[in-house]
Amino acid sequence: FVLFQTVRHGFPYLPTALAFDPVQKILAIGTRTGAIRILGRPGVDCYCQHESGAAVLQLQFLINEGALVSASADDALHLWNLRQKRPAILHSLKFNRERITYCHLPFQSKWLYVGTERGNTHIVNIESFILSGYVIMWNKAIELSTKTHPGPVVHLSDSPRDEGKLLIGYENGTVVLWDLRSKRADLRAYYDEAIHSVAWHHEGKQFMCSHSDGSLTLWNLKSPNRPFQTTIPHGKIQRDGKKPEPCKPILKVEYKTCKNSEPFVIFSGGLSYDKACRRPSLTIMHGKAITVLEMDHPIVDFLTLCETPYPNEFQEPYAVVVLLEKDLIVVDLTQSNFPIFENPYPIDIHESPVTCTEYFADCPPDLIPVLYSVGAKHKKQGYSNKEWPISGGAWNLGAQTYPEIIITGHADGSVKFWDASAITLQMLYKLKTSKVFEKQKPGEGKATAEIVEEDPFAVQMMYWCPESRIFCVAGVSAYVIVYKFSKHEVNTEIASLEVRLQYEVEDIITPEPEIIPPFPDASSQLPSLKSLSGSTNTVACEGTMKDSIPCLSVKTRPVRMPPGYQADLVIQLVWVDGEPPQQITSLAVNSAYGLVAFGNCNGLAVVDFMQKTVLLSMGTLDLYGSSDPYQRQPRSPRKSKQFAADNFCMRGLSNFYPDLTKRIRTSYQSLTELSDSPVSLELERCKSPTSVKGSRKLSLPTDLKTDL
């Protein structure tokens, strides 16, 4: 028996690099931990890892050849073979004296160009994966009269017109067009702002640079002395005709042409400094129209997807893949409002942090279609109507076809049901448990009874019965919600119960005259018990002691519940003498009997969720004490003593297990006869089992307990 990782779901952790094969239509993402994820059509998902664990700096596909080059932070190059079931490294090349900063592999070329921090450019033979010996030294590339070092190589690309000419961009603002055959510079351009990226026009007569002051410069090869166009897209135009104010650096620019429309200029960054609170953005310039797409997370990299892999043809861009720190977004360029594609990958697992998970195999076959049908109705509108463009690769179902479901609980109170059959992970249905509670008004934070300031709805435990479809959630704010599945929308009030669980130490220390202490021999345990119960005088900010109030408020008005899982009952633990309820640590449900049992360090409660009744509420002292407070000798029942409370307590059980009702009723009556306390007190305790301190609760018979 060997544990073996079959698949990895979720978003790549700390992404650093992005690459796309426009022919095979597969995407590669590198991470700071040295991992590479290769994604294709939904279901095609491959994970591989550099042994060194060094961060991935850059990725380059050998387009349409089933291979990938990775450059890592330990100054090594690796050639991966993607044609086998598990990708593996064919060749590696380590740089010992120089640090790698940029790589470029032209389409259908056998030469890989590698730029370094010292400003030199090396050329690697992609087939043998060894250095060719051809090095473009920085001092040869720039004019000899310029004595200052041009900085690291930040860009390398071959001319679309002539693959024998290489454009080299240096950080300090110098651009050199190098003739590989004659080993000399054809062109040198200088700009007084640092360069971040360079992009060619497909005709090979112009190129565009992005700079650290938020400007874009357009250069013509015929007149390299100065740019023939300089723009600061997000800079404010000054009234006196001066140069616009500088903006944040434009980290990357892409310049893509269209046959029947204006070219697209797409860049990240470049926003003005006066908008400090603006979110990270991608700007799309198409003719005179400028569209700014704000992102939820910082942009790591982006790539424009084009119809052709050939750099010297009209590019015809149709989408932009944007890699964010915690998300992957694809924008549709073919529609004027630039909608995004609906992401088919399970990348949003950690949209809100996962706090618990459950896995279910061999589920009833109708369950996945039913969950999908109710989940599909909740899907957001406004996505692109086109097919997901990353559509490469192939996958088969394999021999394993039994239905598997994974359920994830999240910090914001949401619960997601995923179809995990056949390796893929597809979201079926999302449930928001926080909807049963009232929203907290601003400014009420410290005045409420909340015990958790952040994420008060976080899901701690889940129980699910795939056959009965009963679903139960325990939350961090000491509550349990029971859900039932329905295909129909309802508008109803949410039933709620409050349960009081506490260490009943006070009853032992100062017993009331009519109450017999449940543990006469427990005096030796008192000091430790008192320390366990904690401070009993916690005072709220209003100056009043909180008691018998829950942490959250359940909605009292009728609530519209869409088809799917609908809240049937909310059970909340309440504050006791200024002490907040402890978080629930265990949860069990028996859907056949209609019972839910839950407990924490203070005790155990059993609730009949069919009748919405608390059946049992025991403190930890009763559960773990040295003597059994409910120990009794069996007796024949006396018909003369029948209480109204008898029927009251049995009502919740009689409908579901009538054969046990008689035995429970008999046991309960025997218990009341053995007790030394008055009948009226026993009756009162039975009516309100959750609120009377020191009460002796109903004990279920042994054979019923075993079914929980």
Automatic annotation (TrEMBL):
An individual GO BP term: Golgi to plasma membrane transport
GO molecular function, one term: GTPase activator activity
Residues annotated as domain Lethal giant larvae homologue: 231-339
UniProt keyword annotation of Amino-acid biosynthesis present: no
Pfam families tied to this protein: LLGL, WD40
Gene3D superfamilies the record matches: YVTN repeat-like/Quinoprotein amine dehydrogenase
UniProt superkingdom: Eukaryota
WD repeats: from-to residues: 188-229
PROSITE patterns: WD_REPEATS_1, WD_REPEATS_2
Keywords, comma-separated and alphabetical: Exocytosis, Repeat, WD repeat
GO cellular component: plasma membrane; SNARE complex
Protein family: Belongs to the WD repeat L(2)GL family.
UniProt name for this protein: STB5L protein
